[in-house]
Amino acid sequence: MADGMDALGGVTVVEFGGYAAGPAIGKYLANFGARVIHVESQTRPDGFRLQYPPYPSDRVGVNRSGCFAIFNDSKFGVTLNLKNPAGVALACRLVEKAQIVIENMRPGVIDRLGLGYDRLRRVNPSLVMLSTSNLGQTGRYATHPGFGSQLSSLCGFTHLTGTTDGPPQLLYGPYIDFVAVVFGGAAVLAALDRQRRTNQGAFIDLSQYETGLQFLGGTVLDHAVNGGVEQRCGNHDTLAIPHGCYRVRDERWCVISCWDDAEWGRFCDAVSRPDWQTDQRFGTASQRRRHESDLNDAIAAQVLGEDGTVLMLRLQRAGVHAAVVNSIADLFSDPQLAARNIWQEQVHPEIGRHHYRMVAYQLHDSPGRVRSPAPCLGQHNDHIFRDWLGVSTQELKQAEAAEAFS
């Protein structure tokens, strides 16, 4: 899975946990050549395997989850019973040969399993360990369980999402999880660089909750300085006008915004409505803001029959901010994503031929790639424990008899 040109060739990562927040970091490292060993249990596999669709032909199976697959390509998959001393002993042997451990269990769980940082650094003094959790390892609510939708609300995102007179709106998917993944990946790489220079380990306590606050910098500063509390305002913007999402042909949508009167003039010309520039309701930004409802109605009527992509390109060529709203299906035919080889095909033994997402950045001299399909449950037990770790056949039989792999 790795060669001499890989940026992270020779790096081994042991991954305890499941779902998105931890495994997505490991996926990114694996895409650039790290040996990432995803540890699960036969009796309690990664939650994405059985709890989240899609499944081919809607048939649920432990090796059939598309959700699990997209976060775990390019990895090795092993099973260990971490509530079993024999399983924990083998986990420690994995860590002994690793540079990085990533875990995303609730605070306290990894310690109760006997795999906390204090123990693991005795096994491997230069170990880098990242613990990523909802709210961090300390604090009154540190053990608070939950998923990304709860974190988006705690961070204040949903308070700002929705119409002025409506309730807060949940963001799609575990948004904060993926914000935290970026922070976690950067922190791990920084610690790996320090490890290589000094041979010193590190423990990284990553609060996913706190990473989300970065995206509220302006509103937090406004409250700290001015006492302001920003409220929901739909698609309204304090500077851009218009600033909205408008239906176009074939039930599609296009977002359009104009940030000054000059851009508004270019928009009017591009949609063949130069008269709007002299309309007493729309001529200036202040007039447009006073008549924003009329403005949005007028634009909606004007662009309703347009092809969304054609409209987007025409506006962009005119120097107007615009973009079509892609559906999920559109993402697989988007020429920009295709040009950057974001979707990379692999053949999974149970899911079949399907596409994985490559990381959204590349390295010129050591480019990454999707190296293999996501592992089936316990697929690489023999390879990792016998071939790579060097556990003898007799030891493996003893461990299996002790239910270390269950």
List the helices and strands and how they pair.
Layout (H helix, E strand, L loop, with lengths): L11 E5 L6 H9 L3 E6 L6 H5 L14 H6 L4 E4 L5 H12 L3 E4 L5 H4 L4 H7 L4 E6 L14 H7 L20 H24 L3 E6 H5 L4 H10 L16 E5 L5 E5 L3 H10 L14 H6 L1 H12 L4 H10 L3 E4 L3 H4 L3 H5 L3 E6 L3 E6 L23 H8 L4 H9 L5
Parallel strand pairs: 1-2, 1-4, 2-3, 4-5, 5-6
Antiparallel strand pairs: 7-8, 8-9, 10-11
Helix pairs in contact: 1-8
Would you list the SSEs in sequence order as H and E? EHEHHEHEHHEHHEHHEEHHHHEHHEEHH
Given the helix and strand composition, which structural class is it? alpha/beta
The helix count comes to 18
DSSP strand count: 11
CATH class of the largest domain: Alpha Beta
- What CATH architecture of the largest domain do you see? 3-Layer(aba) Sandwich
Coarse morphology: elongated
Describe this entry's structure for a reader.
- Helices cover 38% and strands 14% of the residues.
- By secondary structure, it is of the alpha/beta class.
- It folds into two domains: 12-214 and 341-401, Rossmann fold, CATH 3.40.50.10540; 243-331, formyl-coa transferase, domain 3 (2-Layer Sandwich).
- The strands form three sheets. Strands 3-2-1-4-5-6 form a six-stranded parallel β-sheet. It has a three-stranded antiparallel β-sheet with strand order 7-8-9, with helices on one face.
- The model has no long low-confidence stretch (mean pLDDT 94).
